[in-house]
Design goal:
The complex is a heterodimer of chains A (about 290) and B (about 220).
Chain A: H1 6-13, H2 18-21, H3 26-61, E1 62-67, H4 73-82, E2 86-92, H5 94-105, E3 115-121, H6 128-136, E4 141-142, H7 147-188, H8 190-198, H9 203-244, H10 256-260, H11 262-282
Antiparallel strand pairs in A: 1-3, 1-4, 2-3
Chain B: E1 2-10, E2 18-27, E3 32-36, H1 43-50, E4 58-63, E5 66-67, H2 76-80, E6 83-86, H3 98-108, H4 113-126, H5 142-154, E7 160-164, H6 172-187, E8 191-196, H7 199-204, E9 209-213, E10 216-220
Parallel strand pairs in B: 3-8, 3-9, 6-7, 7-8
Antiparallel strand pairs in B: 1-2, 1-4, 4-5, 9-10
Classes of the chains: A alpha+beta (about 290), B alpha/beta (about 220).
């Protein structure tokens, strides 16, 4: 059998002429921009989530017990070690306390300092035995930590919610873009669609061709956006992490799995929106 | 094969004036019928009912064993694949080659590339366009475009062939060639109905006639 010419094979696969009818530059460019914003929102939500979790853990676990200077720590540490909800109870050395105070007070060798015990509580533990013990110790005070951290945690949670909301808006805008592109494609190929319909093409066949084409264009656009987003996010992580978490950025700091899903998610949005738009339009035909 | 029972049609969507009313006739399998009448008589509307572009406002149309008035929408595509349609304005797809235009019904049916190529080449040879297979349809003359439209209509061997003024835009020689091809399809066993306002065609090629005037059937026989 004679070989089928390439142009003929391509036309056969695209009887609706969608390669020319659908915006093959503008739509991927716009979806690419959306993907870039989505990547920023995902990374923002991920970072804020991590920060909130880290601060939350710090708040629930760490307590400083302040005791008068003359208190003997050994029996207290032994009592603390016997309590069920205590993970660690370690005295903070006086030298360390003086180091921490030096930036504010300067070197004051004669300044009397209290005894401090850093205690880590299990987050789900009943704190009643611990609080009873503290009340029984003369002059003991618990450092009222956590208020500022809790505020910061709430702020981080708010940022995370905002990032997710922005992500939702991006999804809606992307879907609207695809719907507009689909309608433009329908306008450009109205006669062709009508002819295919009258020749016996099913709604699913016609809508499926549009959906596959638009899904592919969205995936390509999202891939382009992602290629731009990753270096930008990495640069941001390098600058931000030393300030926020007091450490260098690591590869694992970016949400790679979610970012890698962006092109597939864009393809799904494009495919589904085009399918729904086309099917709704085709239902008007007899 | 085709049966109209007290069929009426109103535009738009069953609320406007009656385009057709009181149509009552049947076409036997393998028959050739002229659909005659002046412009505006309702010939195209009747043919649109026959190729499932419209549903009747009243009465019943039976096509290839299916009752159209109440048939679900999903039942139409398989029926449409058994009906070939030739339009006066050809309705070819300009972005596809001659070959691909003719191949469309087979592609819609999901025929494999290998089987499709042989069938399309055969049908293009039959209408005399095999040597233009890779040309765009706009490069063809009016007569050639109409023959291509005919090739597309019959490539899937339809049970019913509907032609709406297929010679309306053609000169005499081209018109004769198209009519000869339609009669050849009839000879091969296809039920054919051809709408025309040219009474001379019906005289030159005698066959049963269905005449319409102002949307009403005035003669069948």
């Amino acid at each position: 059998m004679a070989e089928i010419p390439r142009v003929r094979r391509m036309q056969g696969r695209d009887p609706l002429g969608l390669r020319r009818a659908l915006a093959d530059r503008l739509l991927p460019a716009l979806v690419g921009a959306m993907a870039l914003l989505a990547a920023l929102a995902i990374a923002g939500a991920h970072g804020a989530g991590n920060l909130s979790q880290r601060w939350e853990q710090g708040t629930s676990g760490q307590i400083l017990l302040q005791l008068p200077r003359e208190t003997s720590l050994s029996p207290i540490l032994a009592q603390l070690a016997d309590l069920p909800g205590i993970l660690t109870a370690e005295p903070v050395p006086e030298e360390r306390l003086r180091e921490l105070l030096a930036p504010w007070l300067g070197e004051v060798p004669g300044l009397p300092l209290p005894r401090i015990v850093a205690i880590t509580l299990r987050p789900d533990a009943d704190q009643t035995p611990f609080l009873d013990l503290v009340q029984s110790l003369p002059g003991a005070q618990l450092e009222a930590q956590g208020a500022a951290v809790r505020q910061a945690t709430r702020l981080a949670e708010g940022l995370r919610a905002l990032s997710l909301a922005i992500l939702g808006v991006i999804v809606l805008v992307a879907a609207a873009l695809v719907a507009v592109a689909t309608r433009a494609g329908i306008s450009a190929r109205r006669d062709t669609i009508m002819i295919l319909h009258e020749l016996g093409a099913r709604d699913g066949d016609i809508a499926g061709r549009f959906a596959r084409r638009l899904g592919m264009l969205c995936a390509l656009g999202a891939l382009g956006g992602l290629v731009l987003a990753v270096p930008a996010l990495w640069a941001l992580a390098i600058e931000a992490l030393p300030v926020v978490l007091a450490r260098e950025a690591m590869v694992g700091d970016l949400p790679w799995a979610q970012l890698a899903l962006l092109p597939a998610a864009a393809a799904l949005i494009g495919w589904l929106t085009a399918l729904i738009t086309l099917r709704a339009w085709l239902r008007r035909l007899p | 094969m085709v049966r109209f029972l007290r069929v009426g049609l109103r535009y738009p969507e069953g609320q406007g004036a009656w385009a057709l009313s009181g149509l009552d006739f049947s076409l036997e399998p393998g028959s050739f019928t002229w659909l005659l009448g002046p412009s505006g008589a309702g010939k195209s509307s009747l043919l649109r009912l026959m190729h499932l572009s419209l549903r009747p406002t009243e009465g019943e149309v039976e096509l290839l064993g299916a009752r159209i008035s109440r048939a679900p929408r999903a039942a139409f595509p398989p029926l449409r694949r058994r009906i070939g349609v030739v339009f006066q304005d050809y309705r070819l797809l300009p972005h596809l080659s001659v070959f691909e235009n003719a191949a469309l019904p087979l592609r819609i049916q999901g025929i494999t590339e290998a089987r499709l190529t042989a069938d399309v080449r055969e049908i293009l040879r039959w209408v005399g366009l095999l040597d233009r297979a890779d040309a765009p349809p706009m490069a063809l003359s009016g007569g050639e475009q109409q023959r291509l439209a005919l090739a597309r209509a019959v490539v899937s061997r339809p049970a019913l062939l509907v032609a709406d003024e297929p010679t309306g835009n053609l000169d005499d020689a081209q018109a004769r060639r198209v009519i000869a091809l339609l009669r050849e399809m009839h000879r091969l066993g296809t039920t054919v109905i051809v709408a025309t306002h040219d009474e001379g065609l019906a005289v030159d090629y005698p066959a049963p006639m269905l005449r319409l005037e102002r949307g009403q059937q005035v003669f069948h026989g």
